[in-house]
Structure formats: structure tokens, C-alpha cells
Queue: 2 jobs
Job 1
Amino acid sequence: MPTFRPFKALSHFRKLIKDKEDTEQVFHIFESLPRKGFMDDARAFVESDKGRQLMASEPYLPDLLDDHSWIDALPEGTVGHAYVTFMRREGLSAAGLVAEAEKMGRPKFDDQVQWYANRLRDTHDLFHILTGYGRDALGEQCVLGFTYGQTGNYGNFFIAYAGGYEVKRGVKADAPVFGAIRQGQRHGKAAKAIIEQDIRALLAEPLDTARARLGIGEPTLYHEAHRAYRSRGIDPYNFLASQQAVAA
């Protein structure tokens, strides 16, 4: 049984703060903050008719998500079109996230639980598209808040709010940082479980239609926070540059 180790999680979070691209630390944090109900949730889903159907049709999501040839053929305005545009712009890939996770050297199990856990990992960037949160510092925390609402994973909760504290502490502006994260959490809890969706069908769906069907709310407080930053001449996607400009 995994051990709950909050101080170890804090140590890995400090490393993540020093280099936000060091995604490996995120997986260490998750490992340090295991959720007791994970196995029960995994078992319930993989034993359901829908779970068995998805295991057969989507055995490994990174192969599906990184095959841009078929996604490129989808119409503009679809989830898939937005996803591929986002991934190319940010220089990301689903395989890259897998590689970061595998740096931990954990044993692999070709079983149903591993398949379920992999879906939680592999849909992270898709969450950005569906929620409307960017890869800016606050956007990442809001996505994690949303994910906590979906899964109840303590690692998501820890990083979302600890990261929110760092944003609030580091950038002085009247922006509703914690309000935006809490709103993301509420939206995640209210929405249908994204990892339980047919991802291939979801990618082909119009983005607005998918958000409405899944019950994903508008990130109003996140947008309000961005307006607050910009009113002070702060670029929410580049806090460091904005702070250097003010200092100069």
C-alpha cells in the first residue's frame, strides 16, 4: 500500500518551483500523496461495460493523441483541431509526458489498473483544451484544480494550491488566484469524467458542443485574473519578463 508522505511531496514541489518544466517532480508528488479510493474507482470503471469497450478501442492513448495525421483532417473548431494546434504551439507530445513519468523508474504492469492510471496521465493536455485554461502559471494551477475536482487525487490538490500560493506571493496584483483555482475545482467536480470518455469521438466533436455535453463551466475568474494582471502591465504568460520590465 503506498505511503502518504506530505513532507516528501513538499520537497519535490520545491524542485518543481525552481524549474516548472521538470515534470518528473509532478509524478513524484503524486506518488507521495496516494489516494485511498483510487483502486476502487479503477476497478469500478474497468469492470463496467464502457470501461471494457474503451480498453479494447483505446488501449494506449499516446499513440492515438500523437498521430496528428487523422486529427489534422478534422474540421476547424473541433476538440482535435484545437488540441493539435495547442500541442504544436507549445512543443508538446503525449509521448513526452510518458517519458517524464518513466524517469521515476517505477515497474510497469500490463493490467487494467495501469491502463486506468495511464488515462489520468495522458489526458492532462486535453484538459487544457476542454477547460480553456492556458499553460501560464495560473492556468496550470487551475487545470490541476479541475483535475482534483474530477479525480480527488491529493497530488493535484497539493500542487494546485501550493502553486497558487507561489503565484500570489510572486506577482503583486489584485487577481483572484485562489478563486480561479477553486472555480476550476468546482467545475471539475460538476463535469462528467473526461477519462471515461471515448477520446477518439471526443476529438472529433465541436469544442463548444463537447464543453456543453461534459458540463464544463466557463473559467470566468481565470479570465478576470488575466485582466487584473494586464491592467498592471503584467503579461500572465510571462511573469518574469513583466517583473523585469517594471524593475527597469
Job 2
Amino acid sequence: MSGKAAFARGLVWLRSDLRLHDNTALHRAAKGCRELAAIFIACPKTWRDHEEGEPLVSFRMACLRELQEEMGKRNIPLYFLELGEFSQVPAALRQIAEKLSIDAVYANAEYPLDEQRRDRAVRESLREIDVPVEYATDRTLVPPGSIRTGSGEAYKVFTPFKRAFISQYGGDSYQPLPAPHSRKDNGDWPAWIEVQGPNNLVQTVPDSLAGYELSAERGGTVLGWQPGERAAARRLDEFSEIIDGYEDERDFPAIDATSRLSPYLNSGAISVRQCAHMALEHNNDRWSGGSDGIACWLGELIWREFYTHLMDAYPRLCMHKPFKPETERVPWSGDELAFRRWTLGKTGVPIVDAAMRQLEQTGWMHNRLRMVVASFLTKNLLIDWRWGERHFMNNLVDADFASNNGGWQWAASTGTDAVPYFRVFNPYSQSKKFDPRGDFIRRFVPELRGVRGDDIHCPPDTPDYPRPICDVKETRKRAIEAFAQLKG
């Protein structure tokens, strides 16, 4: 390390950024500190309060174990501490900073409301002992709040947000940052230290957490997903080979035409900059034009950006509130039995059931189908979107709060830039259009494998498969009438 480092000893606080390459906080800490360690703080009670389920947390912890091994190769110790709640973090980090003689703490910013409150409290706590805390922009391409309308407000509609993003920031190639070099002389870091609270600071990532089983299969996979930065890089490389066909094939769930990078983006095993850089490299640094497939996928990255910026600008989205206050008056049905059948994939509507079983079996769902099942729940069954949002958070391996909330409010017509309430996805026409041969349905609904032709989309009576839970035409009318009354 150069003698020009600003601090003698630094600590990188890892959260949803579990990678070595292109990690802004880690990069700055490695440059700014002569000695360096990292820490990850698990708060399982708060995670449960935030509806973060077993698939998400299991994948997160599996990625953390992969990262700890790689950091060890670079002589950067990674500490682990399990607390209960976010509220315990400021005091714990202060103790750690004092006992390890930390001179500066680095972290990448997070934007949900509780995370922002926690991070402000940490900064205040460490300021009292003269330890600065630096939060870097890393989860998004640009800082939330940096893209504003002419009147200085946050954008509420995606298309003008996208235009403004490309106008202001489209010239950047988003060159990823390098991983830190191996540190030959990195001080004498203890294997553990005592911290006031339920657990001590240790250099071992545990196999269990309070309230979570941390389920993983042979080889360390979680519901078939290989964790870690190397797996993420492989997936990005694989997608780069097919990205040109993304726009034409992305809506067909039987085809492997999407990136499947969302679990890695959410855990931080790969950065959004790395994704954008790959696509821009393949498209001559153009966000629009060139390859239709690449431009379309870059647009999806901007959607992710949009929802995070929106959440930052409107904290009520983190409080189980609809973006449109008047939609609080929607007469949701509260039908728990219908909701249960939806979660189990037993609605009698094949494309909906196949999608819900894909979620249960893989912890993931094709994006087109996320829209289909959300529309079916909120419009045809007229069940509160928050029930569906919570179920997805509990079962998705890629459960990102901002994107999940934004997607559900879009489908339920309660959010900003949402689908108009009078547009209701017809699951049968969606099935015929995007799974025309029924290959996806047969894969996840084995009861229907013997059904031939177009009957796969709306099968005849069979003893092994339920009748449809509702009439989609009649329930569509009911939903439109319910939303129309809000305008009265």
C-alpha cells in the first residue's frame, strides 16, 4: 500500500454488494486505508419484518460465504455479526470501531426507508468518536435524486425519466472498477471480539440464522441458483451471447432468453454498472438504436433505476401505501381461500398455475408471467396487491423491494405510471400468445402433460386439475367497475 493512504485502518461494511469487482465502497477503502477489513451484519428479525424470505436470505448468505473465501485470498478478513434488528447496528458498529481501532468506515448506500434511517444513525454514532462514514452510490447507476423534472421534482412517469437519464448520463461507458489487490501487510486482525449484545464478532459465516434455515442443495446452490461473483460473471457472459435476441424472445417463458441476472444484482454479486458496461460495449456505447435487443435490455436496467429513484423520493412506498392515495378505497375482496389457491398454483388457469409453481420450485418467475399473475390476483380475484407483494418477497430469490413494489403497484393500477385500471391481462390470450405450444405449462403443471393442442390453455374437465377459480370476463368487469367508482 502506498504511504499516501488517508487512514491507517478502515472497515468496509458490506450489505447488498457481495462482490470484489466494481464495488465502490471496497475500492475507495482499499485506496484510502493502509489496513483493511470487511464486516457483514445480519439482522434476521428486521429482515423478517421486511418480509425477506428463505430463498432470498439463503442466497445472500451463500454469496457471502463465496465472497469471504475470495477476500481471504487477498488477505482481507471478513467479519460476521448477527444482531436482531437494525436499531442495534449503530451501537454495535461503534463498539467494533473502538475495539478494532478503526479510523474510517465505508459502505454503499441503500435506499429503502428503514435502511436510510439505520445508516443516518450509524453516521451519527460514529461521528461521536470521530470516525467518518462514507456512503457511495453503487446499487444504482446514478444517485437517486440526481434526475429531476424542470420544476425540480422526481419523475413519476418512466418514459420521460428514461429520456432524462440518457440525456444526462448516457455518455458514460460505466467502466467497472477493479478488485482490490492482495494486501501483503494488513495488520493483526483478531479472529473475534466481544460485542455487547446477543453475539460476538467472528470471522466465520454461520450455517444458520435466527428464523431462517438457510437451505441449500449439494454444491451450495439455492433452488438451483449457483451463488457468488464468479457464477454471476458466467451468467453475464452467457447472456451477452444471446442479448441481441432479447426483445424478440424475452416474453416467451419456455425460452431461456432473459438474463436471469436479477438474483445476482439484488445480492450484489454483480453490479448494475457491469451489466450496463457489457451491453454498451456490444452496442457501440449506445443506449438506444443499434441492436434492438440490447437497447431493450438497457431499458430494463433503467426501469430498475426508476423504481429505486421513485422509492427514494416517496418514502410512503416503504410504508405499505399505494402511490395513488385514492386507491386505498378499492374494495378488495379479502378472499383468503382464493389467495391460497393462487399461491399454490391451483387456480385452474394453466398459465397462472405454471408461473406460481415456477416461483415455488425455483425462487424465480419469468417477468412476463409476473405481470400476468399480478393482474390475475389484483383484477380478476380483486385481492389486495400487498398480499401478492408480500408473497413474492417471501418466495423470490431475487426479491428487490423497489422493483417488487413497483411491479405490483403497476399491475394493480395503484402506482405511478401504472397500467390503466381498465386494461386487464387476459391470462388465456397471454398464454396462447407467449406459450403457444404449451411447453412452459406442461413443464410446471404435470397434470396437463397429456392435453394436446390449444386445449392446454383452457383445458376440459379433468379429475386431476381444478376448474377455473373465476370467470375472467366477468371478474374483469367487476374490477373495472370497482376502480371506476374511485373517480366519482
